[in-house]
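Feature request, filed as a ticket because there's no other form

It would be nice if the structure record came with a short human-readable summary line next to the tokens. Right now we just get the raw output. Example of a typical job, pasted below so the devs can see what we mean:
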Amino acid sequence: MIIVIYKIVTFIRQVFYQAICGIHFSLFKVSIGKNWKINGILFIRNSGTGGITIGKNFRANSGASNNPIGGDTILRLITKKEGKIIIGNNVGISNTTIFSENSILIEDGVLLGGGCLIWDTDFHSLDASIRGTSQDEGKTLPIVIKKKAFIGANSTLLKGVVIGENSIVATGSIVTKSIPDNQIWGGNPAKFIRDI
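Raw output as currently delivered:
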């Protein structure tokens, strides 16, 4: 009996999540393909002129109770200025923050572990004399994560990096430079470990 009640509650919760996420997509003008499933409720802010586009078969966990490994508390998709986020088909993401002022492209089949941070901007100037003033703008460069790459939990990808096709970023890594196809990198800063 308890299992039946649990399944009913889980089903009702999932229907609720899907409805709320659908409303968010509509409110923030997110284009999303068919057959998406999100466990939890997303945080979306789409104030950039580039917009947010998500392909078909998108899967996401968002919220502390929806990801057994924890990480960030929710999945955030945020654009500002000219920022755009493009997510391909068959992508899976858990509790990650993706923030774009330029461009972030996540190609087909990519997996992002819990608590990842993907930022295409420095947010603030590196020049201390203008930091905190009205001229305070960080440098921005596009990010590309190529097909079937896997980004381990709690990793950070910084502006201007390209993650190669099929490549793996080890858990907890800070990626400051591009990674070729079919390689494993890890550490802070991330360094080459081995070919796949």
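Something like this underneath would help us a lot:
The two ends are 48 Å apart (CA to CA).
The mean pLDDT is 89.
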